[in-house]
Amino acid sequence: MTLRIGFLASYNGSGMRAVVQAIEAGHLDATPAVIISNNPGSQALVFARDRQLPHVCINAHRAGGEDAADADIARTLMEAQVDLVVLSGYMKRIGPKTLAAFANRILNIHPSLLPNFGGQGMYGMRVHEAVIAAGVQESGATVHVVDDEYDHGRILAQARVPVLPGDSAQSLRQRVAEQEGPLYVQVLQRIARGELHLV
After folding, report:
1. Which of 48, 99, 146, 182 could lock 53 by a disulfide, CB 3.0 to 4.6 Å apart?
2. Each residue's pLDDT tens digit, 70-94
3. Residue 108 labeled ligand binder
4. What mean pLDDT is reported for the chain?
5. What are the b/e assignments for 127-147, b being 16+ CB within 10 Å?
6. Which of 63, 146, 149 is nearest to 105 (CA)?
7. Would strands 106-110 and 138-145 be described as parallel, antiparallel, or unpaired?
């Protein structure tokens, strides 16, 4: 079965780019069904436009509130007949309508080895700063199913990255980021092949 994937991204969408490039290279049996961003100036939308992929900006300001934006996102994904929703640096909490419509079918990647260094407020550079401050020897990336709590759902796969002596949050972020795209692609390949079941 060819997976129809919907993407949610706020900025660059690096994970989304890795997945789309794997599809284009024939390494993943999937179709980019729609790309949604809450940020009208995001590079994710530029990427989608350049590749002539379906794309739209949906946010509370344009929709008339958070509830309306949630309903618009859920409807857009359903109209695109999406099988899976992939979050790629999406900085908004997923609303209840979208969660209900795609229960156990929304995936996120987090730049640490969950359950460590996750939860509300733990995103971007904050995660890597916390890892460095804690003095742990290992970090990495985690692909997990999204539920109604931040960074909480079922863990599907992890990539491990050593924390090196002298690492800064920036240098650690760079090495973790290098693992994120390939890890996302591997998980989606397993789902497409029927080796990994979400429900």
Report:
1. 48
2. 999 999 999 999 999 999 999 999 9
3. yes
4. 97
5. bbbbbbeeeeeebbbbbbbbe
6. 146
7. antiparallel
The per-residue pLDDT for range 91-136, each reduced to its tens digit, is 999 999 999 999 999 999 999 999 999 999 999 999 999 999 999 9
Query: Tokens representing 149?
Result: 């709590």
DSSP 18: H
116 marked as part of a ligand binding site: no
Q: Give percent of the chain above pLDDT 70.
A: 100
Angle of helix 125-134 versus helix 169-192 axis, rounded to 10: 110
Cβ atoms of 192 and 28 within 8 Å: the answer is yes
Q: Where are the alpha helices (DSSP H) in 102-168?
A: 125-134
Residue 155 has pLDDT above 90, yes or no: yes
Domains delineated in the chain: 1-103 (3.40.50.170), 104-142+154-180 (no CATH)
Distance CA 38, CA 8 (A): 8
Active-site residue, from 27, 61, 110, 197:
110
**Distance between CA atoms of 181 and 191, rounded to whole angstroms?**
16
Structure confidence by residue, pLDDT tens digits, 139-150? 999 999 999 998
Average of per-residue pLDDT across 2-9: 97
Kindly list the distances between the CA atom of residue 47 and the CA atoms of 84, 110, 199, in Å, as whole numbers in the listed order.
20, 22, 31
Instruction: Tell me if residue 110 is catalytic.
Output: yes
Closest C-alpha to 160, from 186, 146, 179: 179
